[in-house]
């Protein structure tokens, strides 16, 4: 057995001891010397073992005392509140989000020390070497990949691979039903253009990600923001009420799994009800499932599309957040709008370039994809916990947050209706980029929220950044109190 | 000097002799034996020399007699007619081209022997090896290219390279003004969405390429088809008249260089007048310059954008037809719509993937790009001539065509108002794919035209295909006459 495998096997052994409680929080790990004797391994292997468990967050090193099982801070998280029931829904309105978003993006373009605004994991959480080697091999083996005009119809290998993977989410689709797009954002554009036009009303979750609001704004459509639970997703009662109140809704867009920014996951019964409701009201349901594969369960979540029997659900997804953030490979199943969306895609950007598609197709077909997802989910799970603990420890009282069961973001409610724009600006001064809540609604309802990334390795630098952010919020709260006094 | 260089140097020598008339059409080349003695070269070099000049179209081999300087057929080409002046312009209408186009594309998806429908050159006319090696080197050297989220703002190297290259076309633009898109087609979409909306009227050339008509259809815009000369491009008089007649035109779209399908090139004075007219009428001018680099002159053509002093011209182009048909790298200079188009691009497909951009950027920065373009233009020039000669020789009397001064297509008018759909179907039966004229207008005005590719090597197979096509047209003409009799 080589050293590589050996220390990992030992790590498994101690991880089991920690998880079973045999080694409790705060307990001392056997010393490096003792590990060497116990397992008859070299100094280097014993050290590798401890460092590995340390970077995974299970141990912490204390100067001159050795390694200890990390003490989960067990701070009490106060979850973000459910939307108050019976709150009247704002009238549908044209979206005017772009100016905010581009101002924030422009400000955030300066170099920062810690970027908590992104919605992907650290690059090394993705299979860089494998993807790169695949790309090089494909470039070597496929003649004229860059110089031959792209054949009509799109890449068959990728469509096959995606149709097969869709089965995991309870979707049975023929490869020919797959339309490959430039990211999920193009899929959403095409879906909306297929079913609605400028001036039409689209029901969306509230809060929702600014990408969707920008699409609505760019298409001249109106957003009707439906209250959404941080735990179970869009309120179906509120949506039903909205449908009774407004007769000009043309589509419903939801992110059922790890909603952005809430992190909510719709229970299966809700998804099923939602599909039935939209069908019954003759309203197309657009499902954005960009994050489904990151749900931290043994079984992948079932897509709403699973319950679609009439082609009324347009399923949109992407490999961008789960496999290769540097690639823009999205895809969709357009149900009964297939022919129209196929046409719109062709007229908008033609068929995608081949190389990225072939890379993704080959990776999806291998068992490396499942291994990658398992590893990614496990790492993210730990990072979410540590980030949440740090926030709970450093942010002032009154802060509320939930740790979602998957994904790369945490949605944090700040006390005292603090303005996320002020926090954004003060944090940026210190080289910390956050994503302010005011980007997640056409209203100002979520201005006192932040979406914080938890897809990066929990380093001292990150810990420091979260502490600084906590101090910034604390001092803004105090300023506010002094001003009010 | 290695063999490779030697035979090419000798080829230059004989090419000079042919071009100067020292070796006239029909003259016998010195025999291989004589070439060996004259230049003290091996048999293999002498043969390479002759074969090289043969594939370039300067020599032809006659069985048992050796190589002869090819006799240009000097058939009389009857040019496609100018649009009759004073013809009334059809009222602006919603475009209904997609069904035709997709039916034609679907039919053409079966395997064919000779594809005369495409609008690019043969893959080996593009620098495959260099592009592939570049891609592999970039993949190796740029860490996390596929796994790191794309930084906002788009790739700076490519913007720099494109801004520098734009100088060749008389355009002075800052790198930050460049917006990189997925092909020219996305640029056209964005330009039209920025300046017009569903129901608006867009003035276009007639005939024009179906890609543009599909974009208009997908955006719900109306096309106003302006008569266009096969030699000098859009009729500025007709456009001016149209502007006086219709008050709801929202933009003008032109392809000033190697218009698709006509191959026309607007004289500089026309471009200048057009820019001034649009400016004066407050109508944005959208310039599609996808083919400019293929104009067969020593100096690159000057873009209409050159005469734009107020930001009223939106310049759109692509590397797709001129450098790498397998890549979807387009770009635009959006003039005074920059901010809006930047927003639309971000909301539609985000920033482009990095790899293709880096490959193109590095290639554009090297002298290899100029060498490639020179070689491409020279090869295409010969292929156009040979294709035109074959058409003139094989197609029935009454056929009209012009050989454009650049590009990959020839626009052919068939006699007797023959239906291009019938020709398309009969040719497909014989494994020959052509692009029927009915795709190039919302009307049926160009139904008796074909657009034929001349970007492939002139092989026996191609010669045979053109002969078969001539026979098909001939027999359809005869059928028509018999039916009429």
From TrEMBL, chains A, B:
Pfam families attached to this UniProt entry: Aminotran_1_2, GntR
Similarity section: In the C-terminal section; belongs to the class-I pyridoxal-phosphate-dependent aminotransferase family.
The protein's name in its UniProt record: PLP-dependent aminotransferase family protein
CDD domains: AAT_like, WHTH_GntR
GO function term, MF aspect, one: DNA binding
Domain HTH gntR-type: 4-72
Keywords annotated in UniProt: Aminotransferase, DNA-binding, Pyridoxal phosphate, Transcription, Transcription regulation, Transferase
PROSITE patterns named among the record's database cross-references: HTH_GNTR
PANTHER family: HTH-TYPE TRANSCRIPTIONAL REGULATORY PROTEIN GABR, TRANSCRIPTIONAL REGULATORY PROTEIN
Gene3D superfamilies noted in UniProt: Aspartate Aminotransferase, domain 1, Type I PLP-dependent aspartate aminotransferase-like (Major domain), Winged helix-like DNA-binding domain superfamily/Winged helix DNA-binding domain
